[in-house]
Amino acid sequence: MGTLETLLCCIQVYIRRVRMGLDMMNVGSSVVGVTTQISVQPLLHKAICAEFERHENGEGDNEGAPLSTSPDTRPSRPTRKLPQRASTRSVTQHPLSPGSVTSTSHSTQPSPLQSPARHSIPSTSQPQAPPEPRPRTLARTQEVTRNKSKSKDRRSIKRSHNATAPPTLAFNYRPQVTNPALQVSDLPSSRMDFESEDLPAAGGRWIGKLQKRVYHMPSLEELKDKGFKLFAWDGITPHALTDSEGRIITYFAGIPKGDASWPAVTSGADKFMNKMHLRGHEQSAFTPEQEAGRRGDFVALACGVSHGGGQRLPGNLVHDQPDRREILDLLLENEDIRRIAGFQSSAFAYCAPKVYEVYKTNLDALFTHDKTLRANFSNSIFPATTFNLGPVTITLEHTDHGNVAYGLCALTALGDYDPKLGGHLILFDLGLIIEFPPGSTILLPSSVLRHGNCRIQDGETRRSIAQYCAGGLFRWVRYGFKGDKDISKSQKRKFDGDNDERTKEALGLFSKLTDLAADQRSVFSR
Asked: Could you tell me where the Basic residues compositional bias lies (predicted)?
């Protein structure tokens, strides 16, 4: 089958899967919401205004991690066998069971190509002595060695670019708007005293604003003493937080309704991540930065597509340590983790359809333009993933400033801890403490909302899976797959617009609670 036919085949498969995909959502259930008196606009405006400062300073969105497009980098993971692409004939026309959409994995691996054995005829002539090597100067010898090393690196990078990998057409993952889960007239919500305009984005609307680093995380009691309100969430019932204008700014997706296997899925993912954590320590696979970053003292492994790294163009996040690459491969191929990734993507499309459409449009263009970029999961729209392996994943107050300013980050909590006593999600800008039980999922604009976790009890464990998108990817697409140094100043001003226009455009992507069903139909009925 030709390349074009294969791509079309994959697109049809993904579309069919996703049109039945909201079985993963809480079908037939009402989604609770909390409305705030705060508007997100000021924070978003600040973040948009500050983007130019970071971008003009040449800061990448990869937070220091090397990219495949950076000089002298190696493949981000070992060459993997290409999962067999399903034929459209094999797609069932019957409704999928809950969780089956996101649990479809690349289970079958093709056997490597076998070249026929070569039979040589023994030579009957006398072997000739090799010619005497010509003497070389020391400088020439060193030059040859360097050239060989560079050539080897180039071949290695080329192999990674041409390497077989999961299909990258996950961006045709489209929920079905006729699903009962989209009937949200009684969507529970909580209105917060918050203005969406206040969200701090960096200039250009592409990314958030780097916040001052915090080194201390207050306890639950300390937060209560400061006036923070506790939101007792069961981790199951969907719930929306809205700003004073009714815009959905945070979504508690919970778990897939009616899927009795979900506790086993999240438990299996947690156990496997713990296994990979122990394996990495035994093999000394983690760097000091990965074991203790700016977000807290726990092992965090990022993979996927990001932006930055000196070349100021998109690339695959690179892990040149073989044991660490293998650990990431195993994490990405784990069936339980894949199902969680798929549910996160479905929840994103459900609560923020207009933002989802922007992701799809930009990422479709990006992955079509650059065939070397590799998606992590075939059932998720997010281009990047971080595995917070713990064993005590408690994040300090922070923002994920490199992410899309108006985008959402999907977080799934895992581990063994009492959510009544610790592990809460803290939203500092909202003055809110949310109980975050293991196995549940929350989506929030992590680029602009300051967030963190409460400490858990001694002897407890906590891990998490996060999916997100670097804002620099969208800037790259908007600039015509060029950096800002490759376009004229007038073109840059035209693409960026002014801060007020960018803020207004970004705010328009947040769905209001009253308009959510209409937004879903508008986006997914096309």
From this structure: 147-161
Q: Is 105 helix (H, G, I), strand (E, B) or coil?
A: coil
Interstrand relation of 313-316 and 384-390 (parallel, antiparallel or unpaired): unpaired
* Model pLDDT for residues 257-308, shown as the tens digit of each residue: 899 999 999 999 999 999 999 999 999 999 888 887 666 889 999 999 998 6
Residues (pLDDT < 70) of the chain are 1-37, 49-66, 68-138, 149-187, 192-215, 293-295, 308-311
Cα–Cα dist 354/349, whole Å: 8
Q: What angle do CA 439, 336, 235 make, to 5 degrees?
A: 15
Strand residue runs (E) in 187-270: 189-197, 229-231, 239-242, 248-254
By DSSP bridging, strand 451-453 and strand 313-316 are: unpaired
Q: Per-residue pLDDT tens for 436-485?
A: 999 999 999 999 999 999 999 999 999 999 999 999 999 999 999 988 88
At the top level of CATH, the class of 3-81+164-524 is alpha beta
Contact 231, 335 (CB under 8 A): no
Contact 165, 329 (CB under 8 A): no
Phi, psi of 253 (to 5 degrees): -75, -25
Query: d(Cα 146, Cα 80) in Å, to the nearest integer?
Result: 28
Phi first, then psi, for residue 40 (nearest 5°) are -80, -10
**Cβ–Cβ contacts within 10 Å for residue 133, how many?**
6
Write the CB contacts of 8 (distance below 8 Å, at least 6 apart in sequence). none
Nearest to 375 by CA among 170, 197, 80, 123: 170
How long is the chain?
526
Alpha helices in 118-204, H assignment, sequence order: 138-162
Residue pair 423/436 in contact (Cβ under 8 Å)? The answer is: yes
Q: Domain residue spans in the chain?
A: 3-81+164-524
Alpha-helical segments (H) within 57-116: 100-103
